[in-house]
Write a structure and sequence with these properties.
350 residues; seven-stranded mixed β-sheet; 11 helices; Alkaline Phosphatase, subunit A; four-stranded antiparallel β-sheet; 13 strands; 33% helix; Alpha-Beta Plaits
């Protein structure tokens, strides 16, 4: 049986804008898939969870708990290290990401890390400075890629952390790590901020119109001593240069460029994440959101609908989300025979 999990983070627009935005979309294939699918599950948060609904959903696909702990980010650091072929020595590891904090009138705001445009050379230079400071405090820092580093801090295992996307655009005070040793974290974070503040790399970035890399973000703490749990996913489809700590270790990692690559791979239980809507949604750029979403119709939704019709794909699970809700729908060839269900994008507004 061929089965594909399709995740569309931020495909659900804000309730107050949904009617106007959906009216602008001409997506008959997606409208057919959603209208004739059955509801599989729905999760709702209060907006103050330390990860977004789709992030908890992703964590569950890779062995996380069915009922996630909303007081901390998913424990993904060790699996993310596996994805990047890094050894995880015995201990507690966190994901550490270089970020830009915007100085508002009376608080600091975390900006979208996707906007950082951090080169490999600049990232390694900044990493070397941070690594020396962490080593002075008895902590091990390892380099994954330009935007994903890993910190071993066994004594920080009880820290409650937030994913960058959950905290993005907000006053960071309530999203910062909380719990035992939070002062130790803040001290090291402040030291790194001071060392990076006037660094030549940041001066050069600002002359090029780029945001300075002026802080780091800690999340995803996990112990390498905990036995690995069973993934629900057997294949993950990834795009070239994709940086996704959540696309954790699966049986097969398959690089793709188009829907044809996914369909021809005949996934037994594959995962495809189309995450191009996150950035414009978090920035409130709804014109760009519409353009990117509309482009997915011909590139993805129409081919996947055809694959269901002709038997190349037996089952398609579609999961859509925004910042407080995540809904999943299941559709197969038999579902498409429900002709009385007229194509509609209404489920994007629910």
């Amino acid at each position: 049986m061929t089965q594909l999990e399709l995740l569309l983070p931020f495909a659900m627009p804000p309730a107050e804008m949904a009617r106007d935005l959906l009216r602008e979309l001409n997506m008959p294939a997606l409208a057919t898939l959603l209208a004739r699918a059955g509801v599989a599950e729905r999760h709702v948060s209060d907006g103050f969870s330390r990860a977004l609904p789709h992030e908890y959903w992703l964590a569950r696909q890779f062995g996380g708990p069915v009922q996630p702990d909303a007081n901390t980010s998913p424990a993904l650091a060790v699996k993310a290290m596996q994805t990047l072929a890094l050894p995880a020595d015995t201990g507690v590891w966190f994901i550490l990401q270089p970020v830009h904090l915007h100085i508002a009138r009376d608080h600091l705001v975390l900006t979208d890390p996707r906007q950082l445009q951090l080169s490999e050379a600049d990232a390694r230079a900044l990493f070397a400075l941070a690594q020396a400071l962490f080593e002075e405090s008895g902590k091990t820092l390892r380099y994954g890629d330009a935007q994903t580093w890993f910190l071993r801090a066994d004594d920080w295992s009880a820290l409650q952390t937030s994913t960058p996307d959950a905290a993005c655009g907000h006053n960071i005070d309530i999203w910062m790590p909380k719990g035992p040793h939070e002062r130790d974290w803040r001290r090291l974070q402040n030291e790194i901020q001071m060392h990076w503040h006037a660094h030549a790399i940041n001066e050069q970035r600002e002359t090029r119109g780029l945001k300075p890399v002026n802080s780091i973000w800690l999340w995803g703490g996990a112990s390498s001593d905990v036995a690995s749990t069973q993934n629900k996913i057997e294949e993950t489809f990834t795009f070239k240069n994709a940086q996704k700590p959540f696309a954790a270790h699966a049986t097969r990692q398959i690089a793709i460029t188009s829907s044809a690559d996914v369909i021809n791979a005949k996934p037994q239980h594959g995962l495809l994440v189309l995450d191009k809507l996150i950035e414009p949604a978090m920035a409130g750029d709804w014109s760009e959101w519409l353009a990117r979403f509309q482009a997915m119709e011909a590139a993805w939704f129409a081919p996947l609908l055809d694959a269901l019709k002709n038997g190349q794909l037996d089952k398609l699970m579609i999961t859509i989300s925004h910042n407080t809700a995540c809904s999943s729908f299941s559709v197969g060839k038999s579902s498409l025979r429900k002709f009385w269900r007229k194509p509609s994008l209404a489920r994007l507004a629910s």
